[in-house]
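Predict the 3D structure for this chain.
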Amino acid sequence: MSFQIPKDKILCFDGAMGTMLQKRGLKLGDIPETLNLCAPDVIASINREYLDAGADIISANTFGANRFKAEKAGRSLDEMVTAAIEIAKEAASGYGDRYVALDIGPCGRVMKPAGDLDFEEAVEVFAEIVRAGTAAGADLILLETFTDLYELKAAILAAKENSTLPVFATMSFEENGYTFFGTSVESMIMTLEGLGVDALGVNCSLGPKQLVPVVEKILSIATIPVMVQPNAGLPVVEDSGMRYDITPDEFAQYVKQFCEAGVRIVGGCCGTSPEYIAKVKALTGFVTPRERGNERKTGVCSPKKAILFGDDVVIIGERLNPTGKKTLQAALREKNMDYLRSEAVKQQEQGAHVLDLNVGLPDIDEPKILAEATMAVQAAVDLPLQLDSSNVAALEKAARIYNGKPLINSVSGKRGSLDAVLPIVKKYGAAVLGLTLDEAGIPETADERLAIARRIVEAAERHGIPREDVLIDCLVMTVSAQQSQAMQTLHALQMVKKELGVKTVLGVSNVSFGLPQRPVINRTMLAMALMSGLDAPIMNPGDAGMAEAVAAYRVLAAKDKDAAHFIAKFAHADGAPIKERKEENSASLPHAIVSGLAREAQDAVKELLKTESALAIIEREIVPALDTVGRDYETGELFLPDLIKSAEAAKSAFDILRAHMPAEEKNAAAKQKIILATVHGDIHDIGKNIVKVIMENYSFDVIDLGRDVPAETVVEAVKKESANLIGLSALMTTTVVSMEETIALLRKECPGVKVIVGGAVLTEALSRRINADLYAKDAMAGVRKLQSI
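Done. Predicted structure below.
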């Protein structure tokens, strides 16, 4: 019997497996998934406790089962996964309609460009788990506790390409509404719905009380079933040990409220037990699932930023296209991605909302270069991309590795184009731009263009692509040769909006080719198109006249409330003619560091060295820039990937400066030594590795002892390296004791050292309780605290 989400009841998952294993004496450093082989009765008893509590679905003990864990344990991944599914299936067999989920969590590695895990390697890591779990008889796949949208996309593709089972996917959000890696709620929903998951939502990280705003936002946007699995509140340390601050009754009341608001699937995460699930089942068993009635909207996104079409003008920046741009052509042939990053940053600063990315040259490997350019540009800006190519292989490769939901440019009314491009759009959850041309070329009349647009929309829907994911370009012709075509384009645009109800895109600048005063023609055509219902012009955002036309239209169309944006932009304009206004110079070292542009940072340093000393550049340029980055990170304007790329840009500049320093300046800029370790019994080191990257780029000399490090090893390293700063990390509640023991030994053997601690389970109060000197909630806070001493 295949699993389907019921329409008439709330589905209830089980609670935490790790919490139950800890109660049964799971030892520090043990890999829970190995118990499937060496202690199957323990796993089976936990499964049965949750089934007795009323869980409709139990998660197999496979959350951390992957090739990296299997290698560490000296076990076969297939054996661990197969045993877990078989144990859960056997347990569920005596309870009627109960189901088993193949539970998959993050793989423990950080994806490129922030880390070292390649996208396709990540897909295969998850594919191995999916194949084993599917073959063993899992009923559905649960992807949970992800904080990196890119890693989650890899896992979803692995699930879709290696199984036909339903896929549920949840991410862990902080109280600021973003994940640790900076994914927004809107981007998660847009990407996951596009990729075709069966349910989405949030789990872990916070208790139900703290998750209320996140859940409310998800429920207001998502058009598929929503799933919520909170922690049992927040961890609290007492003399008797660690506990969570929400009781089973309180937990169940919050979950019931979530269900009444529209959540369809519930369960528990860290700290929850069968008692919590029994209370949840008792309170939600009679709640009728609520239809939320959310409408799909047309949009694209990067992990951080989602852009909706229709509510306001969306500017698609056109400058990352080599046509007529010799410098860009040369950069593409030389694979100089720094130039593309710089141009992307410039367009973002000029006000673009989406960037068109085209690398089409006859003498390059377009699929390879478009994929590389996509990754490079996404690492530089948080704007969504329009992937622009006539090469179908290039479109597929770029759409596959794109992080978020892209706009594919383009498909036409040609049968071959529809058959080749639309399956790519469907598989990778993209939006698509349709061009109103077919085998006969571009029609002369608006009616004929509407007919092609209708053909594209209907073909997309037959492929399972919703109408909201199709945008139409009615195509601008050159009026110097075909003067009547401008009005035909505008008429077609109006008809497409009215009769098909889809959003529209238009490349405007071609209209003026061959005429004098082209900017006048361009911005007049833009204004006419906007008044005809154009949603997104493809234009140069740095063209002052075009930008002003958009700004004026937004005031007149009441899209710029109280003309606030217009006033802020032009209240202090100097009144100079448009062509005389100059862009602000962005080729500075601070700008390069804040923007994360390593090549520009190096160029700026070389120029500054002609007039300033290396130490002066560090003090006057690099340190203030890093301070700006740190403040923006702390206020939530920047996220971890931004922090890393800015730190690396600063490091690239610093590396050049060190070669130009006299001995006395090198001594003045000497690095402070710090030892980092994940404490004994804890095998999680992503957080510690991120701290390492940030500290190294903030000029600390980091000695990384790795994970699962005994206290004696930390002490030995301190004595050997003569270090007086130690950073300790712990993710698991059970390993806080190890951290406390390590600090106690350091106090005895190495008096005078300063210990800074961090990790998911740590708090300021807990850090004081275990006698640490400093607590840091994240990598940037750690840098700040250490700089203060």
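The longest helix spans residues 614-634.
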